[in-house]
Specification:
mainly alpha; 55% helix; CopG; DUF6290 family protein
């Protein structure tokens, strides 16, 4: 039986990125002490928050 988690991740998304983009992701994730997956989830949350804000 698999591990039960509060917020299961059911989808895998993949895309091609350049060497420079990968290096940037790795550097930022390392500086934040997190994984690239968590970094991208945080980025998505920030984009969502900005999208929900009224434009000035």
């Amino acid at each position: 039986m698999g591990k039960s988690v509060e917020n299961p991740k059911r989808y895998i998304i993949s895309c091609r990125i350049s060497d420079q983009e990968m290096e940037t992701l790795q550097e930022i994730a390392k500086a934040q002490g997190t994984s690239i997956s968590t970094l991208l989830r945080r980025s998505l949350n920030l984009l969502e928050e900005n999208h929900d804000r009224p434009q000035a």
